[in-house]
Specification:
121 residues; alpha+beta; HIT family, subunit A; binds guanosine-5'-monophosphate; binds zinc ion
Amino acid sequence: MNCLFCGIVNGSVPSYKIYEDDTVFCFLDINPDSNGHMLIIPKKHYKDLNDIDLNTLNHIIEISKKMKKLLEEKLYIDGLTLIQNNGDVQEVKHFHLHLKPFYNNPKDLMKIEEIYNILTK
Ligand code: 5GP
Ligand code: ZN
């Protein structure tokens, strides 16, 4: 199976990694809606919400709490929207949770390297 996000997990596709553990991988979205837009994915390939098991889903939510704190501390976000697409609105068929920051006074989109440096240094 040729899956883009499995490629990100195994390193064959480069990404800006923000967090990783045994179960999940978190990286910056290549086409962000706002500064700090990131995706949390299970390392194991699950297609969508029907496919994924509750333990893994729970862990993804746990890590979203951690990433929310990071975004608050490093990027001073004013809000955060979590989105998980399925079916015809899901472009990449490997389960992923979007974390989309909201800013009261949005700045222009910064370079992804710059966001990566702020979140990881
Ligand atoms: P969805 O499947 O929920 O519609 O969204 C897929 C998301 O993956 C999009 O926001 C898109 O920008 C992101 N994406 C697609 N290809 C890549 C990639 O190669 N690297 C990264 N970091 N993100 C990607
Ligand atoms: Zn996959």
